[in-house]
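User: I'm curious what two different proteins look like when written out as structure tokens. Can you demonstrate?

Assistant: Sure. I'll show them one after the other, since each token string lines up with its own sequence. Here's the first protein:
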Amino acid sequence: MRPRPFRGFRIAIKSLTSHPLRVALAVLAIMIGVASVIVMVGIGRGAEDEVRRKIEGMGTNLIVVSAGQSRSVKGQVGQLGIMTTLTLKDASAIAEECPSVKRVAPAYSKKLSVKFENVSYSTRIVGTMPLVQAVRNISVESGAFFDEDENRLMAPVAIVGPTVVQTLFSGRNPVGESIRIGKVLFKVIGVTVPKGAVSGEDEDDQILVPLRTAMNKLMNVTYLSNIFVEAAGFDSIHKAEAEIRSLLRDRHRLRASTVDDFTIQNQADVIEAQSSVARTFSLLVASIAVISLIIGGVGILGVMLLSIRERVSEIGIRRAVGAKRTDILVQFLVESSFLGVVGGFAGLIVGIGGAAGVRQFSGMPVTLAPDYIVLSLVFSVVTGLIFGIYPSWKAARLDPIEALNTKA
């Protein structure tokens, strides 16, 4: 004779397979809940990874010092007025006097009209130093970047972004061509590698020119709009920020009660803020999926109660031939848990397929999260088990004589 637990398991499986439609309806909500967790959390993780990749692509351990105070208006960070307090001497002082700083690239940027043949439009012109390549992680796809000699000699050379290539040159190779920025003729010597958009700003829609050329020939200014700083390491970003703030306040002779006349943003805070938003989104989606799983549990509860009502005579016969209450309890707990397991694995298959479909047809980045996949599977089994306790207990409490005399 087979051991009792195994016999109860066999009876439970036989009972479930004899009602496939009922089983399918019971596991549907569980399947939807698990699939929702896998797909939606995958989309959230993918978006988080994409944002992190783009932010890190702007530069390693990056700190941006901007002239004036910045304010967020309608989600866009902008400067209040024109500030002239940030100078080349400030940039040199940061490089020389801040021990937690590795490299510094001063810059002045402004939106100007650019013309090539009969095509013209406005884009951001960034005057900067060759060191910006290392500080902001800028690579050249074709041609070359300008060097220190070209900056010192105020050479009219330009490095254009991919968006400029598409807009101004209709995708043609622009290296060697001449463009007019404002009233000055520049020679294009290179094209940067695409970076995409970060925080709603197209990093490819810009033209890089030597800083001295920009300040003296193009914009006629003696001050900077930004200083890009690379900290010595990720752990020293906040220390470098404190050193820069202290140095600039001292150089600008600001009193203790006076607010900064500059703004410092560091990469670590931006990444943390973006990650926090993505985590909140993932938790929100996971909460909705948990509600779906609970609804699925209620479905299992209903199916189990209906099943017990139809099988009262069967329970009475089993009790009459020697089955104990624990045998009946185990049999129906196995049935409810089996529904959770089937729903969980069906949701796993649908979820992985759905994630692949979203990635394929929408182009959205989707990153499967193993921890949430395992958690959703465990939760589906636990849901089936918990919502099967009451029906199983009710079946085990049936009196065998009353059960045998009951018509299903």
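Here's a second, unrelated protein for contrast:
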Amino acid sequence: MALLTALRRSGARESQLGRTSALTAAGVYFLVPILCALAFTVGLGDPRQKPGLDAYAAIFTTDGLAQSLGLTLLLAGATVVLVFGLLLPALLAVRLAAPRAKALVAVVCMLPLVVPAVALGAGITTVLRWATDWLYDTPGFPLLAALQQPGFPVILVLAYTLMALPLAYTTLESGLNAIEVKVLVEAARSCRASWFRTLFLVVLPNLREALLNTAFLTIALVLGEYAVSALLGFQPFAVWTVAISGSHAQLSVAVSMVGLIGTWLILLAVAKLGRSKASKETS
């Protein structure tokens, strides 16, 4: 018995040591670049510069930031709406009416993972160039021009939606696996609830955490996406940050740090919102 207890304690110590080592390595991997970037933005280690927060103060007076950030947030909101509009009906239809189509939907949603962003951007550019030649002087040309309006490029929303599909599908599918959708729907319908009330008052509240996580991941993807936007010639937040890095390197890194901190704050807010709603329902 004493030998068994000693073996268990030894195994627990090894497991604790393994977790500590893994967390330490992960912490070093993520924190060292962030700390180096912070030191660069405040001028630490540069004898030619006095340490200070000038780069962060310049963020609010730099031309182009408000426009690029506003455009990015608009694109992120539209992408979230389109992702939900496409995926939720498809996944619910698979659960309720066509379970055999689950594999097909999974393949279609995960397919963008094998297409690099550069290849996607180059492909969209080629298609737009081809469509411009073929649709010129036709009723379809104004629609093609509307897709590429610099004020709100719908073509970027379509591209972002395609890129967000794998993450959104994985998150929503995990949320749907955690509940009995068919039982909930049949119970609501047996109480004479309409399909609208069944969806918005029964199914979606049970998917709140999955919906919040999907929205956060989509917003984070849009905030950091560069390749497709740059290839298509638009200037959302990520492209603007790279564009100013040539002449304002410290400012560019400072903006990136603020964006990183803002993304983490959104993540914490989403997690706190999900926990507070869940605790209210269980209390």
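A detail about the second structure: DSSP finds 13 helices and no strands in the chain.
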